[in-house]
Specification:
By secondary structure, this protein is an all-alpha fold. The chain has a domain of 35 residues. 77% of the residues lie in helices and 0% in strands. It is flat.
Length: 62
């Protein structure tokens, strides 16, 4: 069992994340996977900015 006070090395984390992405991606090649992920990242960013703008408008309207 890992020690909770030990630090995770960056290389280990990168390998874990890459392995997780490969499991999620399935049979799709890594370069083609970006065709699915980049639009989702863009929509997430767009949604976050929209929410921030709504909050600023709500504060200004008070």
């Amino acid at each position: 069992m890992p020690n909770h006070n030990s630090r995770l090395e960056l290389g280990t984390l990168e390998n874990w994340l890459w392995d997780a992405a490969c499991v999620i991606r399935g049979p799709i090649d890594a370069p083609k996977f970006k065709d699915y992920i980049l639009p989702l990242v863009f929509l997430k960013r767009l949604s976050d900015v929209f929410e921030d703008e709504l909050q600023q408008l709500a504060i200004q309207a008070r």
